[in-house]
């Protein structure tokens, strides 16, 4: 019979996975720099810059959403992958989304 976990155990496991995911996302953003790819405005590494793939149908996009460790490793090992992603500030993100619709 499978062991049932308590709410505290599940919560601590969730918090661990969340902190790990956020840490690797932060590391990936650090590799790409600290400025917006579109407007060039500088931001601190902990700001709200979003990592976005240039091509919407990029196969790595879904893998990154579920596993940021993979993206971080590939950004470290494959410099040409850095051309496929960009950092977007919130203002450029809103402008870009409104232009698409």
3D structure, described in words:
The chain has 101 residues and is mainly alpha-helical. It is built from four helices and two strands. 54% of the residues lie in helices and 8% in strands. α1 (7-32) packs parallel to α3 and α2 (59-66) crosses α3. The longest helix is centred in the N-terminal third of the chain and has 26 residues, at 7-32. The radius of gyration is 16 Å and the shape is elongated. The mean pLDDT is 81.
Outline:
The chain has helices at residues 7-32, 59-66, 68-77, 90-100, and strands at residues 50-53, 85-88.
How are the SSEs ordered, and which strands pair?
Elements: H1 7-32, E1 50-53, H2 59-66, H3 68-77, E2 85-88, H4 90-100
Antiparallel strand pairs: 1-2
Helix pairs in contact: 1-3, 2-3
Please describe the structure with a list of short key phrases separated by commas or semicolons:
101 residues, mainly alpha, two-stranded antiparallel sheet, 4 helices, 8% strand, elongated
């Amino acid at each position: 019979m499978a062991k049932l976990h308590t709410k505290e155990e599940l919560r601590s496991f969730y918090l661990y996975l969340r902190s790990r995911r956020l840490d690797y996302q932060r590391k990936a953003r650090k590799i790409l720099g600290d400025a917006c790819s579109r407007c060039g405005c500088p931001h601190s590494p902990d700001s709200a810059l979003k990592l976005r793939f240039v091509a919407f149908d990029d196969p790595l996009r879904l893998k990154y959403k579920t596993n940021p460790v993979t993206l971080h490793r590939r950004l470290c090992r494959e410099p040409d992958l850095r051309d496929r992603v960009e950092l977007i500030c919130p203002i450029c993100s809103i402008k870009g989304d409104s232009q698409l619709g």
